[in-house]
Inverse folding.
C-alpha cells in the first residue's frame, strides 16, 4: 500500500490556553503520510478518547507527564486500525489501542514506547469500550478505588462525575465489593442513569439539589470513601460528611482545570485532622503491570451483565475543539469519545 | 485540711470568639472550694499547657472533642499537686498531670475520666517537661511522625512550627531515625535554636526569607515527609516541593484558627495527585495505649543528652488571656506554659 498518497489531518497545540481552550489555541495541519521502514506501522484513527486530563497536558510545568509542546500534535489515547505494517508485531487489519494523538493517522515504530500500542479484540467488546471501562478510565477507577480507597463491604462510597468514564467504573466496582454507592452528577438524566442502569444506590443532582442535604439523606452512616473527580465546592461539601478514617481519592479536579486564577483548595481540609482521614492522589500508570487483572474482572462482570458502560460518541475529527469543551461544561453523558473514521 | 477556706479562681468561656479571642470572651469567677467526699481529690494547679488546639475547643460544632460550653471553665491540660485526698489512688503531695482546666484548683473524683489524672515523677524530669516532650505535644509529634509519616532513614522531613512543642519533638525524632530534617520557624533566633541546640540540619525563617527558595536549597532531594502545624501559605508552598509518594501529616493549622472568614484550603492540593502523595490527619488520643512507648524512648534520648526541649514559661493565672494569644502571634519560643503557682 502506498501511504504517501494519504493526507493526515492533525490538531496541534498553537498556544497554551488561558482558561477554557479557544479555537485559536489549535492549529490544524494537513500533511501527506511518509513511507514506512522496517519495524514501522501506519494506524488509521477510529476513535479518540477525550479526557479531562488533556487540559492539564496543555499547561506548562511539572506534572506526572510532560506537557504537550507548542506546535506538537495534541496527545490523545485512541483506537485505530493498522493499514500498513513492516513489523511482525502487528498485521494489517489489527485493531490497536495506544497514544495516537489528535490526528487521522499515526506513523511510527510498532514498539514505540510513548504510544504503547497493544492489540484489542473487537469481537470481545465494541471498540469504544476499550477507551472506557476496559481502558484508562476503567483502570483509573478500578485501581484508584480498590488500592487507594480500600473499600470494605458495608461502607459508603461516594463518587463525583458519577456518569463519566471513571465514575461509572468506580460505582459499579464498589457495588460489586458490597458497598453502598452514592453518585454525584449534574442533571436528573445522568442521575437516573447511574441509579437505574448502573445500579448505584442513589445519585445526587448537584445542579438542582442541595448537595449537603443529599449526602445527609443518602449517606445516613457518613462517607467512608470519596472518589473525587471534580474538586472545588463538591469536594469541600463532601469533606463535611466524612467518617473517622475516611479515604479520599484525588483523581482529578475538572471544576478547576480552566481556572484563570488559582485553584480553589479544599477549605474544609481540616476535616482530615478531626477524622484522622486521608486524602491521596492516584495516577493510573502506576498500576500498568496489573491492568490485565482489572480488565479481566470487569470483562467478566460485563459478560454476566452486572457491569455496564455508556459512551457518548461524537463523529468527526473537525469537531475536536468543541467536543473537548463538552467535558468541562458537563455536557457529555458517559465516556466522551470522538469517532474519526468508520470502523 | 479544710479546703473550703481556699478560693479558686477560674477562667470561664463567656463568649465564642470571632477571630482572635478578646478579653471579653472570658469571665473570671472566684469561688470557695467544696469539701471532698470519698474517692475525691483536690489538685492545686502548678502549670497549664497552652496549646493551639485550645482555640478550636472554643468554637461551636463537631470536632474530635466536644466544644467548651459557654460558662464552663476553659479546658486545659496541666500539672498540679494533690493537696487533699480521700482516694487511695493519689496521696497528698503527689504531682499529677491531667485535664485541670484554667483554674487555680481542681476538685473531683480521682478517677474522673475526662480529666484523666496520672502521677508524674518530678525527680525524673522537671515538671514542665511533662507538658512538652513527655506530654501531649511530644506524643503528637512522636506518633504523628512515625505512624502517619512513616519516615525512612535518608528521607527528608520538613516540619513547620519547628521551635514549638510539637515541632521540637518531630525534628529530633526524625533525626534519631536517620532523616534529613529541615525546620520552618519565624525569626532567626528560633531558627538558630532548632539548628544549634536541637540538631536540625537546617531551618528556614519564613518571616524573613523566601520559603520556596529555602526549601529548594535545603531539600535538594525534595520533601518526603511534611509535618504541618500551621496550614495556610506555608502548607501551600511546601506542596510545591513534595516527592513522589510523599506523606503530609496534618496536625494543625495555627495560621487559620482565628480566621473570621473561611479557612484557606491548600490551593496546591493537586500536588497530591501528580505525586501520588498522601495527606492525613492525626489526633494524639488515638495512640493513648502506646504513650508509654513514646515516653520511654524519648526519656532515654533525653538522659543520653541527644534530645532537648525548651519551654517558654509565663507566670500568673491572670496572664492567661494575653499569654494564649502569644501562640497565634508566634511570640512564644518553645512550648508555652503558664505557671500558676510555685512548686
Amino acid at each position: 500500500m502506498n501511504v504517501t498518497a494519504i493526507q493526515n489531518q492533525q490538531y496541534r497545540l498553537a498556544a497554551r490556553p488561558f482558561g477554557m481552550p479557544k479555537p485559536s489555541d489549535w492549529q490544524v495541519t494537513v500533511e501527506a503520510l511518509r513511507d514506512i521502514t522496517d519495524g514501522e506501522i501506519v494506524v488509521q484513527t477510529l476513535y479518540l478518547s477525550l479526557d479531562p486530563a488533556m487540559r492539564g497536558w496543555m499547561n506548562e510545568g511539572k506534572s506526572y507527564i510532560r506537557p504537550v509542546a507548542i506546535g506538537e500534535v495534541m496527545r490523545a489515547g485512541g483506537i485505530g486500525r493498522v493499514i500498513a505494517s513492516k513489523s511482525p508485531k502487528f498485521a494489517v487489519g489489527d485493531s490497536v489501542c495506544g497514544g495516537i494523538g489528535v490526528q487521522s493517522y499515526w506513523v511510527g515504530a510498532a514498539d514505540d514506547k510513548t504510544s504503547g500500542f497493544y492489540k484489542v479484540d473487537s469481537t470481545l467488546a465494541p471498540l469504544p469500550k476499550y477507551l472506557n471501562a476496559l481502558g484508562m478510565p476503567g483502570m483509573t477507577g478500578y485501581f484508584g478505588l480498590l488500592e487507594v480507597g480500600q473499600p470494605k463491604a458495608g461502607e459508603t462510597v461516594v463518587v463525583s462525575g458519577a456518569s463519566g468514564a471513571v465514575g461509572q467504573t468506580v460505582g459499579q466496582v464498589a457495588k460489586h465489593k458490597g458497598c453502598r454507592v452514592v453518585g454525584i452528577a449534574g442533571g436528573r438524566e445522568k442521575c437516573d442513569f447511574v441509579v437505574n442502569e448502573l445500579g448505584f444506590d442513589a445519585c445526587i443532582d448537584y445542579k438542582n439539589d442541595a448537595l449537603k442535604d443529599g449526602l445527609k439523606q443518602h449517606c445516613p452512616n457518613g462517607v467512608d470513601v470519596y472518589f473525587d473527580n471534580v474538586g472545588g465546592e463538591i469536594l469541600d461539601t463532601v469533606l463535611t460528611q466524612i467518617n473517622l478514617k475516611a479515604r479520599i481519592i484525588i483523581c482529578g479536579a475538572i471544576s478547576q482545570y480552566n481556572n484563570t486564577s488559582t485553584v480553589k483548595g479544599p477549605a474544609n481540609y481540616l476535616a482530615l485532622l478531626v477524622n484522622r482521614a486521608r486524602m491521596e492522589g492516584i495516577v493510573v500508570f502506576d498500576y500498568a503491570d496489573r491492568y490485565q487483572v482489572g480488565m479481566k474482572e470487569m470483562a467478566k462482570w460485563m459478560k454476566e451483565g452486572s457491569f455496564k458502560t455508556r459512551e457518548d460518541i461524537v463523529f468527526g475529527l473537525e469537531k475536536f475543539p468543541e467536543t473537548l469543551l463538552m467535558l468541562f461544561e458537563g455536557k457529555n453523558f458517559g465516556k466522551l469519545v470522538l469517532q474519526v473514521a468508520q470502523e
About this structure: The two ends of chain A are 19 Å apart (CA to CA). The interface with chain B takes residues 62-64, 231, 236, 250-253, 256, 262-283, 286 of chain A (CB under 8 Å).
